[in-house]
Structures are given as structure tokens and as C-alpha cells.
């Protein structure tokens, strides 16, 4: 039976972006089904008592070297977002709405790209609207949808589910119920999908 | 000119142990000189405001899966130390003494092995003495040396040097002045030693 790669992420997490550039290829190479699961990382931090690694100045400084190194390793574009940290509640609710409404395939790459390739200010609702419009989406409709209860409930449910499964940061992958934390564990994720973990 | 792999570690850090099992082979493959630098991780945490990842229960639980996975990946023995966390001040001073006194090659593998393979209680000075004696070292002499100023100064100097260079956790490697944090960055360390970073 084909395995599923469950991928929990938040658009505000640069390592989520980096990993996200790889997960489709990993799923393809292993014959797995990819299930992207938008969660609110701030909610995960609050529930677990964890903090953003960016809060430690020394770690943040090192990440300024490490993140572009991964981007070059993967051969993908990347820049740190100058407006970081971004409150991603609206963006993550938008991802939940996009999944509910069947437009996630357009929404998802547009938001990650705007955040970590184009470095746009996604704290600004007008910028978000411009990004969605450019992706062929109805920005006004998204503005309404993210205030509706089914959308709020879906994001909260996925975030609670993540915490209940032991998630404490992003990105986090699951294969056969086994958790893998971080972009840097994707090689193990791929082995797990092949049933070839050491 | 041959490069140097500078490797900052603490015996209380399981990922330091895992990385330590690899650094000699990496140096050999790349023709690099290996410089192991014992530092006091507790001192690094205090200076930087960082905390042990083991303090977050969810992360600690996940590490219980991740650490043995790395050990199997590397093909090295490993078990979590049941007496963790261990106050490593005496052990790290011992490493400084061993380097000053020319017996580090015997001291270093014996302590890492006792901690992360044999799971011994290295908070107990008698256990430490037994480990050193079994390694052919003079335990009594070590007990005296770690109270001497040159040894204390050396550990403090290396720890301060690490913090000044941006170290915030263990293990941390440097190649040509560039920092790489974590056991999981060793593939990048090896590329850097080859002059082949992307």
C-alpha cells in the first residue's frame, strides 16, 4: 500500500518553505501521497511552551547563513523576509479555506513564494490581496472566508491535531505515524516512505 | 592548504556524541586537520540565553526516536543516558586537562562511550574514576588537575571563545571561520572542507 507523507507547515517558517520545495519530489520518487497540513505555528508554540528559534539572536544570525545554504543545495530561490516575523493567522486560515474550497494548488505556492522568494509584506492585507489576485484567486472572497467558522475551525483542528501528535515546531512530517521534525530530516522521511529507515 | 575542522562539543550532549563518531572519518576523507574543542555547554547556554532542547518535553520525546535513528544511520552504538542531565563541569575540565597533558586520545573516547554507549552515572565521581582507570588513565591525577587554575582557565577560555564566535549549542563545527550548528549539518561541513559548498 502506498504511504502518505503528512507535512505540517506554517507560511511564516522559512524552513517550512525550504522543505516544501522538496516534498512533492520526495512523494513522487517514493510513490507516496502528499498531504499538506496547514497549522498555526504560533498556536503550536503556545500549546507546547516552545519558542521561535528566531528569538535567539545567535541562532537567528546563524540561520542567515544556513537558510540560503539549503536553498542553494536544493537549487531553489530564497530570501529572508524583511518583514519577519509575520502574523500568519490570516494566511493559515486562508490555506484552510483554500483546501476546503478546492483552490489550494493555486493559493499555496503563491503565498510561500511571496513570503520567502519575493520578500513581500504579508502583514499588509493589501499585499496579500495583490498576491492572491496575481495567482488568479478571488481576494475578496478569501477576505470573507477567513472570517467564517468552518475555516477557523479547520485551522484550529489541524493545529490541535498536530500538538496532540507531538508537534512542537515546523516543518514536521509524519510517515506511518512516525514524526520527523525539521527540513533537515527529509532524507529520513524519504527513507521512511521507502520503508528503508535504518 | 589543508583546512581545519574545529569541533566544539560537550560530553553531556548526545548529538555531540553522534557527530563525534563521524568527525575523524570526515577529516580523513577531506584531508582536513581535526581540532576537538571541549566547551562547557551549560556556560554557552548561560551566556547566550539559550536552553537545552531536552527541556521541552515534546522535543525530548521526539529525540528518543531521532537519536537512535542517527546512531543506526551511522552504524554506531548508542543509548540515552538514564542519569541525564549530567553536570559536565568536571568532565569538561578533565578534557581540558587531558589536552594540556597529552592524554586526550585516551580520555575522550572513554568518556563519550561511558556516557552515551554504556549509560553510566557520570555525576558520580567514583564512576568517572572507574571509567578513567579502565582507560589506562590516572584517575587521582585527574581529580587533582581539574582543580588547578590552568585547567579551569583553559575550559573557560574555549567556552568564551565559542560564545564570541557565535556558538549557541552543541555540537558546533567551524570550517574557514564559517559556523555549522548541529550533527545534522555534518554533510555541509564535509562539503565546506572539500571547498564544495553550494
Q: Care to describe what's here?
A:
Two copies of one chain form a homodimer. With 198 residues, the first copy, chain A, is an alpha+beta fold. Chain A has a single domain (4-193), classed as Glutaredoxin (3-Layer(aba) Sandwich), CATH 3.40.30. The first copy, chain A, is 56% helix and 10% strand. Chain A has helices spanning 14-30, 41-48, 57-74, 89-101, 104-116, 125-134, 139-145, 149-164, 186-193; strands spanning 4-9, 33-38, 172-175, 178-181. Chain A has a four-stranded mixed β-sheet, with helices on both faces. In chain A, helix 2 crosses helix 8, helix 4 runs antiparallel to helix 5 and helix 4 packs across helix 8. Chain A is globular and about 50 Å long. In chain A, 43% of the residues are buried. The mean pLDDT of chain A is 96.
